[in-house]
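lol forgot to send this yesterday, sorry. C-alpha cells for the thing we talked abt
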C-alpha cells in the first residue's frame, strides 16, 4: 500500500490547526487533546413552552391546567392532536406578574381512569373479604367438627375455666316446705272430694307422698332454674357471657329423677355437673334447696 494512504493524526490537517499549534508552541500541543466549544457555540438546551391543557391528561393535570412542555412535543404531537393550546403573550405576562407556579401534576389521574380504579379496587376488596369470610367459616366448621368450639369463638377449655371461676360453689334456691300435718280424716276428706276413681287415686298418692317425705316442697327446682342462675352469673362478665350452655349440659347426681325428668322436689343439698361440649371434665357444683320462711 502506498505511503500517502496513511495520514498521521499527530500532524495538523488544516491551516487553522497549524496556526493554533504555532501560537501555543509545541510544548503546549498534545496530539489527542480534546477540544471544547465556547459559550457562543455551545449546544442549546431543549426549549420549554407553557401551554394550557384542553383535556384531562394523566401525569399532567386537569383540562385548563397550565403546564410546561417541550416545544418540540407541543409542536409535533400535542397541538396537532388538540391536547393543549398555546398561551397568548398577555396570558404569559399575567402568569409571570401573579407569580403562578407552572408545573405538572405527576400524581394526577383522570376522572374516568380514577373511577375505573375505584371500581376495580372495590371489586378486589369485596373479593378479598369474601375469601376471608369463607376461610373463617371453613376453619369454624372444622373446629366444630373437632368439638373445639362452644360459641363466641371460645374453646371448651376456656369456657370451662370461666365457669369454674365465676360460678359459685353453692347455688341456693328457696322453696316452701309442705307441712306434714295431714291426718287420716283429712286424707279421707281429700279422697272423697274428688269426682272420679282416677282422680281419687292421684289425690291419695299425692297425700301419701307428702306424708312420707317431711322435706317435701311446693313446686320444684329444675335444670332450667339452675341454668338461668348460671347464665345470670356469667352475664356479668363480657367474655363469659359468650359461653353457650343448655339444659342438656346439666346433670344431677343422685336419685332426683321423677317421671323421667331430673328435678328436685325436696329440701337438701344436691350435686350437679356442668359439662361443656368438647371439654374433657365437667364442673361440679352444689345445689342447695332451702326452706323459704315468711
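and heres what i got for the seq, position by position
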Amino acid at each position: 500500500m502506498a505511503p500517502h494512504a496513511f495520514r498521521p493524526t499527530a500532524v495538523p490537517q488544516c491551516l487553522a490547526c497549524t496556526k493554533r499549534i504555532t501560537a501555543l508552541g509545541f510544548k503546549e500541543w498534545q496530539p489527542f487533546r480534546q477540544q471544547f466549544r465556547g459559550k457562543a457555540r455551545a449546544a442549546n438546551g431543549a426549549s420549554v413552552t407553557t401551554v394550557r391543557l384542553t383535556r384531562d391528561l394523566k401525569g399532567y393535570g386537569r383540562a385548563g391546567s397550565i403546564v410546561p412542555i417541550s416545544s418540540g412535543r407541543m409542536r409535533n404531537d400535542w397541538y396537532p392532536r388538540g391536547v393543549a393550546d398555546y398561551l397568548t403573550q398577555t396570558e404569559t405576562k399575567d402568569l409571570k406578574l401573579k407569580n403562578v407556579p407552572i408545573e405538572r401534576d405527576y400524581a394526577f389521574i383522570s376522572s374516568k381512569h380514577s373511577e375505573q380504579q375505584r371500581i376495580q379496587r372495590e371489586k378486589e376488596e369485596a373479593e378479598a373479604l369474601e375469601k376471608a369470610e369463607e376461610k373463617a367459616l371453613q376453619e369454624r366448621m372444622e373446629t366444630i367438627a373437632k368439638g373445639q368450639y362452644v360459641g363466641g369463638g371460645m374453646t371448651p377449655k376456656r369456657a370451662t375455666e370461666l365457669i369454674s371461676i365465676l360460678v359459685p360453689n353453692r347455688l341456693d334456691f328457696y322453696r316452701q316446705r309442705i307441712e306434714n300435718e295431714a291426718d287420716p280424716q283429712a286424707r279421707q276428706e281429700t279422697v272423697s272430694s274428688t269426682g272420679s276413681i282416677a282422680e281419687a287415686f292421684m289425690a291419695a298418692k299425692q297425700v301419701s307422698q307428702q306424708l312420707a317425705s317431711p322435706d317435701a316442697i311446693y313446686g320444684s327446682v329444675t335444670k332450667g332454674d339452675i341454668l338461668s342462675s348460671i347464665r345470670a352469673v356469667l352475664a356479668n362478665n363480657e367474655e363469659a357471657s359468650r359461653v353457650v350452655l343448655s339444659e342438656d349440659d346439666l346433670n344431677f347426681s343422685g336419685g332426683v329423677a321423677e317421671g323421667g325428668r331430673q328435678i328436685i322436689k325436696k329440701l337438701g343439698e344436691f350435686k350437679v355437673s356442668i359439662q361443656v361440649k368438647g371439654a374433657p371434665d365437667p364442673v361440679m357444683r352444689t345445689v342447695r334447696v332451702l326452706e323459704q320462711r315468711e
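The chain has a mean pLDDT of 77. anyway ping me if u want another try
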